[in-house]
Amino acid sequence: MKPFRLGLLINPLAGLGGSVGLKGSDGVAEEALAKGAEPKAHLRMQQALEVVLPYRNRIQVITASGCMGEDLARKMGFDTHVVYQHHSNVDYANESSATQSISKSMDQASVSTTHQDTCNAVEALMNETLDLLLFAGGDGTARDVYSVVDDATVVLGVPAGVKIHSGVYGITPKASGLVVKMLLDGELVSLMSADVMDIDETAFRQGTVKAKRFGEMLVPAEPRYVQAVKMGGKEVDELVLADIAADVIESMEDEIYIMGSGSTVAAIMDDLYLANTLLGVDVIQDKQLIASDVTAQQLLDITQDKPTKLVITLIGGQGHVLGRGNQQLSPALIKQLGKDNILIVATKTKLKALDGRPLIVDSGDPELDKALTGYYKVITGYHDYVMYQVANPDLVE
């Protein structure tokens, strides 16, 4: 039987900025590493590939060298063919000191890559006959893939970035793997064109979202597993937001409150007359701001052994409450808080826009994600609540 030819590509720097509050990784990889960020993209791709391990003898992985795919594919026992050698596998004599420091700081050998490596790797992969190109990264990676990939190649992203506005990604890493499994099982999988979106990260770090559509790529049309394009724009129903804010503020006690990102949470901060990091995470106690735009480690330090609640909202159109733009909310923190101390706030308009699809947690820790499933009381107004399901991100096949 002819092997399934799986193009595999990992952006090893994807998502580095999230846990340390940098809102992205474009151009700030060295700073993120200096702040203690750890590369996770290879782990996200591993979660996707674990789904198809039983099919290992039917898959040939076509990939780039080292940390861009080869290391993981060989470690997992896949038949692996390398078609691109990235620049960090050559002499560093001509590399900048910054690039060298990034490479030496990583917990894997030789993981210094650039967006040009991604483009070059995709170009090399286009010379191969692929059944699917599976890549791990964020919106910047999707843009790089889009800039090179041809119109006939089917692609699918494994979410590993800080921000995921594009509609070319699985809703979780395992969901991406399940789509590959469907193809291997010979199921009828339709194809569709999905938007490649990205934002200006410099403006993003200053609290302004400027999203732009760059084009489309061909992806499997499987709505259970492939996410929708993020709905942009601020909530316009100020009265509803004021009602939500009033409910949360009325119930506040002396404990610490972690205030997640997003316009719905921002409305609560506005009603408290507190400065808010729209695209970051803040901490308040006694209705006073005690820390702004905090990192994952700072959150652990601030809340250790102290009663704490987390106030979060969902991403419109997608339904994610964890794992998209709020990687500061680490698995360690969520385990420390406990499920009962998570307050979800959302307008009914946002919930109805999901068309019955559940909320999603994608923390990076599959066992934690399973533990967080179930029905939650979502605050939708003043003393107004609805029960809404958080789904198991592993999804029942």
Description:
Keywords: Kinase, Transferase. This is ATP-NAD kinase family protein. Pfam families: NAD_kinase, NAD_kinase_C. One of its GO terms (molecular function) is kinase activity. By secondary structure, this protein is α/β, with parallel strands linked by helices. The chain has two domains: 217 residues; 154 residues. The protein has 14 helices and 16 strands. A nine-stranded mixed sheet has the order 10-9-8-11-13-15-16-14-12. Strand 2, helix 3 and strand 3 form a beta-alpha-beta unit. Helix 5 packs across helix 6 and helix 9 crosses helix 10. About 7% of the residues have low confidence.
List its traits.
30% helix, elongated, single chain, 397 residues, alpha/beta, 2 domains
Compact summary:
The protein has about 400 residues and is an alpha/beta fold. The protein has helices at about 30-35, 40-50, 70-75, 95-105, 115-125, 140-150, 175-185, 200-205, 240-250, 265-270, 295-305, 330-335, 350-355, 365-370, and strands spanning about 5-10, 60-65, 80-85, 130-135, 155-160, 190-200, 210-220, 255-260, 280-285, 290, 310, 320, 340-345, 360, 375-380, 385-390. This is ATP-NAD kinase family protein.
Beta-strand content bin: 15-25%
Overall residue-averaged pLDDT value: 82
Number of spatially distinct domains: 2
Low-confidence segments: 17-22, 89-110
- Rounded to the nearest angstrom, the distance between the terminal CA atoms is 25 Å
Helix content range: 25-40%
Number of helices: 14
Shape: elongated
Biggest β-sheet, characterized? Answer: 9 strands, mixed
